[in-house]
Task: structure prediction
Amino acid sequence: MFDLSPLTGKITFDDLSPLTDQPLAGQIDSLKEDLLQVEYGAQWLLDVGWYPEFDEAGAFRVAVIKDQDWAHPQWTGQAQTLAELTARLTEAQRELHARLDLP
Result:
């Protein structure tokens, strides 16, 4: 299972944690656009999806969204592997904490 414990926000949707350390190609049926959403206060979201969904050539996309403005993310990152995704989530959360003035 993918570890979400480092995330400090409120997880409101999670289809990401069931992913395992197995090759992503073997989990392609689980790689969709909506994998994870985490709220940080009333204005901020951390969102994770796989684009294009169900495509082995795709990638994880991580976005920091303010005020539901999906057309203009405040921060984005991309990852090909779960290890890279962990790093992008750390970066995204660091960005959120800076904007929210949290430790």
Summary: The chain has a mean pLDDT of 94.
